[in-house]
Each structure stands twice: as C-alpha cells, then as structure tokens.
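User: Just a sanity check before I run the rest of the batch. Below are the structure tokens for the first item. I only need the designed sequence back.
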C-alpha cells in the first residue's frame, strides 16, 4: 500500500516544462451538476408544475457576452419531470434572483410585486426630493423625527437594562433560600403535629382496648364464682313426715 502513495515524482534531467501541451478549456463548456429549483415553474409544454426545492440533474454553462458589473451570468438546462421537455433558466445578479428563459414560466409571487412597488416608490420619492425644495425639507424633517423616536426608544431600553443591572442577584438567591427554609420548617411543624396527633390516637385506642379487656376478665371471674357456689338441697325429711 505504501508504494502507491507517492509524494514526490521523478523528473528526468532533460525535462522541459515549456514543451508540455496544455489543453485550453472552452469558455462555453457545459458541466453536469446536481441542483435544486430556486423557484416554482410551470412547464409550457404539458402544464406540469415544478415546485421550489425540486432536485434535478442539470447542465451549467457560462453565458457569453452577458455580465453585470463584472459578475458572470450562468445558464442552466434541465428537463420537465413529466414530458421531458427542456427548460432553461439563468441567473440575475442585478436582483439576486433567477430568470426563467425558455420552456417554462415562473409562478406568481406576491413578494416580488411588493419589492418592485417599493423600488418604484423609492425612485418616485427621490425624484420629488430632487425637484422640490419643500418636499426635501419635509422628508428631512420626517427622517429626523423618526431618528429621534428611535433614539428615545433606545434610551428607554438602556434605562431598563441599567435598572436590571442594579439588581443584586445574590440577595434574590438568599431571599429565595430563606423562603424555602421557612416552607421546610412549616412542613416539618405540620408533620410533627400530625405524628403527635396520631401517637395520641394510638395511645387512647390502646388504653380503651386494655379497659375493655379488664371488664371482660371481671365478668368472666364473676360468672365462674357463681357457677362454683353449692345449690340448696330440698328438704326430704319434712316431706316424708307429712306423708
């Protein structure tokens, strides 16, 4: 195994690196990649929906002659999962998004319309500020008022944090422990009272039982004594004399 892991290579004395033939890679060469759809598409051929996050085996190439601020634009080729029609899309670095180029259309997304409306409103606001001094002053006043409100909110948050920072957590822990000890003492007193009450009940029960045993013993002894006394004999002589 060690002879296959060679770290150094042998270069002969007559080696000339300038004579090596270097293969130039074409700029429009396609690469096979595995990717996920960044958006939901609908196929133009069969109407099948390709959901966002669907995995595909795609081909990637660099779009020649198109770039944005020196950023290259890539094109992707993949097939529909139902009709196998070829769908192409490319990157849009200006909007940090993708564009469906052919074979499919992008599904409607309200967020994109909202972002576009915000951009239009921002441009309109900028144009108004450039042409009217009063509008510029109004916007500046509004911005300054908003900054003051934000600053007041931050000051309030800082004041709350300082107030919480002055709290001594050791005192809170000590108070909590003392409160816990008081609870334990109350529970111990309740348990002690309960045990004493149960002990009294046991003692009284045993005493009552002993008294009942003594009464039974007395009754038994009296019955025995009555049974042992001699019975009076009838007077036989007097009866015979009378006869």
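Assistant: Here's the designed sequence for the first item:
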């Amino acid at each position: 195994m060690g002879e296959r892991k060679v770290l150094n290579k042998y270069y002969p004395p007559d080696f000339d690196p300038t004579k090596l033939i270097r293969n130039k890679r074409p700029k429009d060469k396609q690469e096979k990649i595995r990717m996920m759809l960044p958006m939901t598409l609908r196929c133009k051929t069969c109407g099948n929906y390709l959901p966002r996050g669907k995995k595909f085996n795609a081909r990637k190439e660099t779009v020649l002659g198109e770039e944005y601020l020196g950023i290259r634009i890539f094109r992707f080729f993949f097939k529909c999962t139902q009709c196998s029609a070829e769908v192409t899309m490319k990157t849009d670095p200006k909007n940090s998004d993708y564009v469906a180029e052919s074979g499919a259309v992008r599904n409607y997304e309200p967020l994109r319309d909202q972002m576009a409306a915000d951009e239009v409103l921002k441009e309109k606001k900028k144009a108004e500020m450039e042409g009217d001094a009063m509008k510029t002053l109004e916007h500046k006043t509004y911005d300054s008022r908003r900054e003051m409100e934000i600053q007041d909110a931050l000051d309030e948050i800082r004041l709350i944090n300082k107030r919480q920072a002055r709290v001594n957590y050791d005192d809170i822990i000590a108070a909590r422990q003392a409160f816990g000890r008081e609870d334990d003492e109350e529970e111990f007193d309740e348990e002690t009272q309960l045990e004493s009450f149960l002990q009294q009940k046991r003692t009284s029960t045993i005493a009552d039982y002993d008294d009942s045993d003594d009464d039974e013993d007395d009754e038994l002894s009296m019955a025995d004594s009555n049974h042992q006394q001699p019975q009076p004999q009838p007077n036989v002589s007097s009866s015979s004399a009378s006869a």
